[in-house]
Amino acid sequence: AQSVAQPEDQVNVAEGNPLTVKCTYSVSGNPYLFWYVQYPNRGLQFLLKYITGDNLVKGSYGFEAEFNKSQTSFHLKKPSALVSDSALYFCAVRDMVDYGQNFVFGPGTRLSVLP
Amino acid sequence: EAGVAQSPRYKIIEKRQSVAFWCNPISGHATLYWYQQILGQGPKLLIQFQNNGVVDDSQLPKDRFSAERLKGVDSTLKIQPAKLEDSAVYLCASSLDRDSPLHFGNGTRLTVT
Description:
- The structure holds two protein chains of two kinds.
- By secondary structure, chain A is an all-beta fold.
- Chain A has one domain (3-114): Immunoglobulins (Immunoglobulin-like), CATH 2.60.40.10.
- Chain A contains no helices and twelve strands.
- In chain A, strands 2, 5, 6, 10, 11 and 12 form a six-stranded mixed sheet that branches.
- Chain A is globular, with a radius of gyration of 14 Å.
- The termini of chain A are far apart.
- By secondary structure, chain B is mainly β.
- Chain B is built from no helices and eleven strands.
- In chain B, a hairpin with a 6-residue loop joins strand 7 and strand 8 (75-79).
- The radius of gyration of chain B is 13 Å and the shape is globular.
- Chain A binds chain B through residues 32, 34, 36, 41-46, 49, 51, 90, 92, 99-100, 102-103, 105-108, and chain B through 4, 33, 40-45, 48, 56, 91, 93, 98-99, 101-107, 109.
């Protein structure tokens, strides 16, 4: 079975500081990983994805994520946070080997960037 | 490109009533998903269509929920009869294929009283 965990319900960071939103996953084979962001009363928006290749993936709005196979993690990062980054962030995973599986979403992490 | 359209945005009904949600995916997207997002949780897949065929409905409560995607474009999700625990945001998403990023609509917020 595949699963994804986001160990922090809430992350607070000051504007201009670096931010990290954590994600760990569990799959039988190789993972296919996504990050999405959700603003109030809106649907989820795609930020970035990892399939294979470079462990550091760059995405929209200056976000990047680092894939670490040994730690089964895919943490979302940004060098300098903006107040407008405040939102709900979801990590999603699918097992590339078990093609019958659909994406599983984590519970979400609420990011608050303080001015 | 136009995004995924959903209606209505909000719906309030009493338990045991029926409700239907509509979704129009991005043009050309073969795969369409319905998700249920309960407050404080991540989206949970209810049903996935590939064109007009059902690919995965393993988590759809089939005694009360139904969905269809006629002609492989628009889709409708119905709940009949509704229960209090159905209160949630219902998100529709579409993608070019199963490996492409999902494009979500803004959702329908359902409140069952």
